[in-house]
Each structure stands twice: as C-alpha cells, then as structure tokens.
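Request: Show me your protein:
***
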Amino acid sequence: KGEYSKALEYYERCLEITERRLGRDHPEVATTYHNMGGVYRNKGEYSKALEYYERCLEITERRLGRDHPSVATTYGCMGQVYESKGEYSKALEYYERCLEITERRLGRDHPEVATTYHNMGWMLFQLRKFGDSGDCLLEAQRICRQCDQYEHREAILLRCAKYLGEIDGMMRANNAQGRMLRKLESRRQQRYGVHRCGEVGDGFCAAGGGTADPDGEGAVRSDGESSGSCQTTKVAAKKKKAISKKKKKKCKGR
C-alpha cells in the first residue's frame, strides 16, 4: 500500500517486544532493523536506511558470522541504497561483498548470484566500464537460463538483453569513432608532412615559433619543405654564418 509510516509504527512495536524478551543482540532484532531499513529506503530516506542496515549488519555478523548469507543480503540492500543515491562506485563495492559471500555459501549457479551479477553489471554500465559490465550481465544470463523456477528469471533476462544490446551499440560507435579519428590523423599527417626543422607536421613550427597555415604564408608543402617562418629562419641562419666567416677572414688579415 505504500503506508510507510504505518509500517514503521508496527516495526517499532515489534522491536520493543523482541528486545525486551530476546535481548538487544538477538538475530530477530537484526531482522526487524533490516525491515525498517527497507521501509526507509522505499521512502527515499537513504541515510536513515543505511543507519538501520548498519545496525542489522552489526548484530548479524556478531551472532551468525561474517560469512552468513544474511550478511550478504544486507550488503546487497545497502548496495541498492547507494545505487538509488547515484553513488555507483559505492554500490558496486557492496554488491561485490554480497557476491563474494553468496558464491561461497550458496554456489556459483544460485539465483541470488545471478541477481548480484545483474546489479553489478548495471553499476558498471553506469560507470561506463562496458567490457566488465558485459561480462557480469552474460554471467547473470547464464545462471538465469538454468533456473526455471526463479521468480525474477524473466525480468533479469530481459534487462540483461537490453543492457547488452546498448553496450554492443556503444562499443560499435566507439570503434567507428576511433577509426574515423585515425583516418583524420592520417589525412592530417599526409597534408602537413614532417617539418625539416625536426617537428612532426602538427601545424606548429618550433624553429619559426609560429603556426603553419596550409592556405597562407606559413604553409608546409607536401614534399616536407616548409615555407614562411621555417624558410625565413633558414635564410637568417645562412646570413649569420656568412657574416661570421667574413669576420674571421678580417681577423686573419690583420
């Protein structure tokens, strides 16, 4: 119904009795904290949700062990909170923790492993790590195809197919863009060539200190010779050398 305030009211009552009768450190208390965290997550109160998930995690790890599937479930829920906040790197971190425990305790082909791979694939997609994203989504697909009775099977398969299609399109576009840039670079090199002054033809002549304009005075010819600023520098250098030789001859004559 979405009556979150009412839900929290009843969870508070449950928590009060459970703590009084079973103790503050009982796993049932942790379960109630977990449920309250879920309500706050649905309400969009993410800081509050994380606070209750942390309380749940603290009790569960202490009473059931750090390697218990319930710990993995809480990590997964915390990942969803960070995902809702748009903190994708943080969400991925918690999904990875969830995956590590789930694979070890439930096996690589368990439906919960498929769910976590799907979530990780989506986070990696958001982070534009398309190769890693594709790997996770393909693994989620592989597991789901083996799990006929899994309630989320069709939804995960559908989303995986959608995201993989988008990844394929983006990678094709990136490859096409890369080929186009390489062609443009090749044309630019052919047009500007290599300067005799030692600089690759990138439109800038280090010796002349100016920009080579392909349509104007500073153009670099296709045979690699440069005119304009480079050529002027060469002439100036020759004149300086000639003057230097004349001075030396005068000194010898004296």
The first strand starts at residue 204 and ends at 205.
